[in-house]
Amino acid sequence: xxxxxxxxxxxxxxxxxxxxxxxxxxxxxxxxxxxxxxxxxxxxxxxxxxxxxxxxxxxxxxxxxxxxxxxxxxxxxxxxxxxxxxxxxxxxxxxxxxxxxxxxxxxxxxxxxxxxxxxxxxxxxxxxxxxxxxxxxxxxxxxxxxxxxxxxxxxxxxxxxxxxxxxxxxxxxxxxxxxxxxxxxxxxxxxxxxxxxxxxxxxxxxxxxxxxxxxxxxxxxxxxxxxxxxxxxxxxxxxxxxxxxxxxxxxxxxxxxxxxxxxxxxxxxxxxxxxxxxxxxxxxxxxxxxxxxxxxxxxxxxxxxxxxxxxxxxxxxxxxxxxxxxxxxxxxxxxxxxx
Amino acid sequence: xxxxxxxxxxxxxxxxxxxxxxxxxxxxxxxxxxxxxxxxxxxxxxxxxxxxxxxxxxxxxxxxxxxxxxxxxxxxxxxxxxxxxxxxxxxxxxxxxxxxxxxxxxxxxxxxxxxxxxxxxxxxxxxxxxxxxxxxxxxxxxxxxxxxxxxxxxxxxxxxxxxxxxxxxxxxxxxxxxxxxxxxxxxxxxxxxxxxxxxxxxxxxxxxxxxxxxxxxxxxxxxxxxxxxxxxxxxxxxxxxxxxxxxxxxxxxxxxxxxxxxxxxxxxxxxxxxxxxxxxxxxxxxxxxxxxxxxxxxxxxxxxxxxxxxxxxxxxxxxxxxxxxxxxxxxxxxxxxxxxxxxxxxxxxxxxxxx
Lengths: 339, 355
Known about the structure:
The complex is a heterodimer.
Chain A: H1 2-10, H2 14-24, H3 29-49, H4 55-64, H5 66-80, H6 88-104, H7 109-133, H8 138-156, E1 161-162, H9 166-173, E2 176-178, E3 181-183, H10 185-203, H11 205-215, H12 217-222, H13 227-253, E4 255-256, H14 264-274, H15 286-306, H16 311-338
Antiparallel strand pairs in A: 1-4, 2-3
Chain B: H1 2-5, H2 9-25, E1 32-35, E2 38-41, H3 42-49, H4 51-65, H5 73-90, H6 97-124, H7 129-147, E3 153-154, H8 158-165, E4 167-168, E5 171-172, H9 173-191, H10 194-203, H11 205-210, H12 215-241, E6 243-244, H13 253-263, H14 275-294, H15 302-317, H16 319-332, H17 342-354
Antiparallel strand pairs in B: 1-2, 3-6, 4-5
Helix pairs in contact in B: 2-14, 2-17, 3-14, 4-9, 4-12, 4-13, 4-14, 5-6, 5-7, 5-12, 6-7, 6-12, 8-12, 9-10, 13-14
């Protein structure tokens, strides 16, 4: 009896260690895979181009994808509850053009910025209420949000509106330098959003409820968790992130444009999935989504370095998405067999 | 009361109401004129313009019935349009029927392969339909852009423009295309056991598997059908604008198609589906689009109206609102919360008859 039990311990091979690790931390595996792919991409690009891993290029990677990262944080919350939010790209466009038009009509920035965030959160609230209180599928509810936000963006203005307000442009024009590295306030906002998102997800009661809802809504409800509040809140958070992304994108491009962010929701979902969040809910990491966004951004940068058509970005991201889905599928199948 | 209970009553009432409002607001909406043996008018335009959406929604209905969803239809449309027009552009004689038919054949074949790919991911690998088709939705448009080299390929070909705007007898040819597709799919699904088996797979995959239904083949076929129909839709769309625009072709059409299917009374939870309902749903969406244009609203702002429609439709279908309706109904002692609706619908029907 004892001999049988101690046998695994007496032969602690590397393979056995790895298999123990993977079976215990199955949910972290896709995120590790994303990190591995990111490192491969960066190292491969550096070897190929020779001038890829420069501080300048890496700083730009963060700044160019700041809005995507903010959206990905909100999307992670939604997807972990097994929902989906298709409205994020349109909400970003709406809040962006809304803010730009308010600024153009002379409203001070300290009113405009909260107004943009509230506008995003309100659309999120609408989606959340539809999903939770009227049993509408998240896909359809957020579809209504997509239509609403996109239409409202065009109601505000059919053409782009330039932003002249210096305090908003300050977010992008200020460069805090550290040697050759630099970061703008928009980049700091993106990083802060990720940090706050990760802390809320892992260190608060609300965050644990979000995971519980995604794991099994029925069990979460029977445990007495505030399921309804959590399910509405994740969409509000996603809408809020949409508003914040609208702010960052407006500062980044110096204008509000109603056609911004068409198809961005797909990029965000792809980044979140590549970052290791399971679309069936219950598993996922905000930090993983950040990695996913970096993978997406790196692919985009590599393609522009090669001078190839940007349409390759979507083909490659699509292929990568497929790879991750199949890998996730295999992991879920394995862990279900194991339990 | 039996008429009220019919599941197509509410979708049909919505369409009739919409058309009636249009006719009251602008009597010229209902005018149909006969010129050179061909019918013209706003209503005929709706029949013609609804062709791409109708084909896509038809495929979507079957996919949704199997408890799936196909997000890639817009991308498939872009690919098939790009393939067809690139072939016609490269061929010597753009006006020869042979070239055009060959180009369309190859485009639809490509669409079939893409549909089969979706079906493979969903039915064999068991990936969630939303995600499986998301892959192609992302990659397909990129591929279409590569086929056209990132340009908008424009083609002047008389056989091609006949498909989009030509007339067969007195009605537009495009109308007959979607009518034929609806009739064929309707006959195959409803006059054979296939429709029932499709519903069985959608209602309870596990039970239907235990009952010996080969769900894998049925699901796979549904995605192939959706792909083929999207391929034809892509050709019609490209023929209509005489160009292959990989960015605009089929943009958001998956969402409008899903909306049309839901409007027609098919539940997104899978199972029972209604092809007639989808036809009504598509015509409603198209009529709403025309209405918005008629009212002089910029087309770009039309999504706001669709958002309102989506919210109303999902609220009407929501169990909670049904409960409220019953509560309201029992309080006033009538048979149901919907009881006060028929008097609203009837006068409008009469008005339509008068006109």
